[in-house]
Design a protein that fits this description.
Blueprint lengths: L11 H8 L17 E3 L6 E3 L4 H6 L4 E2 L3 E5 L6 H15 L3 E6 L4 H6 L2 E3 L20 H13 L4 H7 L8 E6 L2 H6 L2 E5 L11 H19 L15 E5 L21 H15 L3 E7 L7 H9 L3 E7 L16 E7 L16 E5 L4 E5 L4 H11 L6 H5 L12
Parallel strand pairs: 4-10, 4-11, 5-8, 5-9, 9-10
Antiparallel strand pairs: 1-2, 2-3, 6-7, 11-12, 12-13, 13-14
Helix pairs in contact: 8-9
Amino acid sequence: MAAPVNSVGKTSADRLQVNCTSFQKKTRSKLISIPGTRPSVQNGQLLVSTGVTSLDYLLGGGLAVGTVLLIEEDRFDSYSRMILKYFLAEGVVCRHELFVATAQDNPDEILQELPAPILDDVAVPKPVEQPRLTGEPQDSLDAMKIAWRYQNLPKVQSALASSSRFGHYYDVSKTMEAEIRQAAKCHRFYLPDHITPSSAAHRVESYSALLKSLQEVIHREGFDLATPMSKSRNILRVGLHSLGSALWGDDLCCHDKPRYSHALTTFLYGLRALLRSSLSVAVVTLPSHLIQDRTLMGNITRLCDNAIALESFKGSERETNPLYKDYHGLLYVRQVPHLNCLARQLPDHKDLAFKLKRKQFSIERLHLPPDLSETVSRVSRGEPVGVASACGSGASGTKNLDF
């Protein structure tokens, strides 16, 4: 083929210079690839799993790295402690580093109670054991396996699990093997080892020592975003148990006007600022039912990115109410994050309940009569309700809880 007329007599370098333009193909920015993480489909934020698939779904796909999840404890701290152990167990399985801080139990006691991972959640028969019919495509067989695997899960829980595998499942009736647990790198903060409760300054120094210890770990272990990218990156999972309790030196509990209310709010402000500039994510549990100042509780919630509350039926009238016979408590979504987007990712349902089975902690939608459903919604918004309406009127006019 003959060369174009305007290019005759020109060198190859001249022709290349003529054809060059300022147009450049737009490419996506490089995402950090860390095991146990994935980008959010809403805003591209890096996510980690809480260890509870249904909770990941409620939070928009998982916990965003650099954020804080606040869990308002149930009265006996049974289920909130269980979610914290799920969060830490997921970190062990994903080979993330852990930072555990407690004031009551030694961090080693919590680590020894981590649930055992289920490596093979459902034993799917091998293809050789399931002969394929003539003309039946292999894709349909794979789809049937996935459907059978998740057909017994609740809708809230299976919505994310069936679409892609993110997170793992755990058997709460067994504890994690010591070999698996000891393979993870864990940093511990036990308050009695750092502060002696001998003066009023203990109320402020406890949180200052905790924040300083966490900051040292982040900088020393290379979780700071200022660390050169040439180094292999990892995630630091921070678990802070029962902040705001009297064991931390706080006077927030059982006081209408606590004198040292600024200690916890100042700590949370510093914690969130520290996590924003690092590859870290935190889960904080807090006994909100003991805090009398509701304005202070509102400030604490706003200083966290995600906030959920657990209400256990244990010891209450709802424990024997036929409406809640299949559940162990209610779950309220207090706050969801508003990160890198104009609109928040709100959960599909507000009436949620949880139950702890032998091998999993699941969150499901709760079907109630219209009047009782409105009562639950008012409780989730913090509005006062009557005792009769809150406890329910009985089993008359109810719907089936299974869906």
